Amino acid sequence: MLVVDGHPLLREAITARLRSMGAGTVHEAASVAEARARAQANGPCDLAILDLGLPDGSGLDLVTELRQLGWNRLVVLASSDDPYAVRSAFQAGAQAYLLKSASPAVVTDGVKRVLDGGVYADPTVAPLLATGTRVPGTDNTPRELSAREVEVLQLVADGQSNKEIGEALNLSALTVKSHLSRIGRKLGTGDRAQMVALAMRAGVIR
What we know:
By secondary structure, this protein is an alpha/beta fold. It has 10 helices and 10 strands. Strand 7, helix 5 (104-115) and strand 8 (120-121) form a beta-alpha-beta unit. The longest helix is centred in the C-terminal third of the chain and has 15 residues, at 173-187.
């Protein structure tokens, strides 16, 4: 198993918890660079537990990289219960999202669920996922946006054009336009700035 966290005490505590659950070899890394080196040296492990806020980069990028390298069981252990962070972790390929404030029992439950091939969200953040893609439209009625529509809106918020969004998501500019039309119908506005403002207010994008 692999544990990636910048805080030595927390890393040791997680390692000890995994060993008490019967883990064999547990590799540790304190940064994105160290984690990459460990991943290359040891290949896909049974499980990786990663912090999102690492000293030299984003744990989210690391989740995506490990996923592409064939790591199928990835658990995020983070201090943030921000709905955007939770959704982003799952969209990047994580199977579980646990809070650092979680009890040892919750951490054990999450790890066991992922090792059994399941998905787990810390009980504190689970309700956020249920409402996380709902954006009140101009009439204040909550509308459900798909994960792809949220991705498109985030890139709009980042100031990207339809062509740039298409390149980033491997879509044609026409498909991006149809996504934006659908979002516009759901939210009751065709104005890009207003769509972004509504989604930001709902915490769906940042």
